[in-house]
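Known limitations

Files may contain more than one protein. Parsers should not assume a single record per file. Below, a two-record file is shown to illustrate correct handling: read the sequence, read the token line, then continue until end of file.
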Amino acid sequence: MSWSSKSVDFITLFTEDLERSKAFYQDVFGLRLIFEDENSAVFRFANTSINVLRADAAAQLVSPGAVADRNAGARLVFTIGVDDVDAVCAELAAHGVELLNGPLNRPWGVRRPASPIRAVTSGRSPRRCPAPTVRSTLLAVEGIQYSFLNAK
């Protein structure tokens, strides 16, 4: 299979409360609304657009599948690299966002610039390097979880 693009251009998220979701992306992330109609709002994260779509308008998009109920559990996790998870937690609290956990240290992950997974030593076979500890936090809005990880 050949792909003309190796990037994700749009992610569509389903919400029961479009106004609340719009406020979250505008107020917390500081994103500019680039499109809006009665059923959706589109925001831009660097090179990916986020289309927030009313769940009751999503059926035709996923047919013959079904839109999962937001109370069924996590439906999606966004992982967003940041320079300082603790500072992001403080900023989120200032916006009234309640965290599900953290900030806390996780014994997994990759920090950028990425540490090599394997190291080669002279005359020996490759060995696995320990994964770096990553500082993270998690929050949820409208059934979508957001994980913030230290990017450095």
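...continuing to the second record:
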Amino acid sequence: MRAFLGFVRKEAFHILRDKQTFWILLLMPLVQVLLFGFAVRTDVYDIGREWDGRFDLVYITIGALSWLPDLGRFFGVAARLLAPGAALAVYEQHPFLYLFPTPGDPEYDSENELTAVFSYFRTAPWEETQGIDYIGGTTYASPTSYSHTQKISDILNPILRSGLMLREFHEYPHDISLVWRHLEKYHVVPLCYLLVAHKPKDGAPAGP
């Protein structure tokens, strides 16, 4: 949930700062529908086999992976959607960040921002009953939602098992979520990463 809230804060900040961004946000989905067609599924796990091998790129960025309870199944779908030689790119916040509380959390201490409070090996999902308004930033009671934290190995291994080949993996000291921006000044832990993998060109099957 914290990853999602960071994404919402970032988007709300840009919308309120720049009206052009607001119109782009409204009009871009319409333009995409006109140019590229329609959404296939709202649940990525249910994307049908008729779409296999038809895409040159699967791109995943901030606030996506934390909502997926089964990364093995997810990356299996992504792998089979890719054409031979096509790429998977993941640009996400680093799992190390989940060690640290953020401003507003009861555990947050501004004098000890680099003190690890949570376990890197946490397996239980985060439970949240508070929603947030995209535009106004107000919160409200919402149905219970669940988000997940994953170790780097929890991300890499399903990608490799899906038949994709790791091409690049980079870690960076900048924050892309706007939630852990206060840690940028330390340059001690990675705050985000970029992962690129590709599907072999030899036609070997990928995905479940």
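Parsers that stop after the first record will miss the second one. For reference, the second record is described as follows. The chain has one domain: 2-198.
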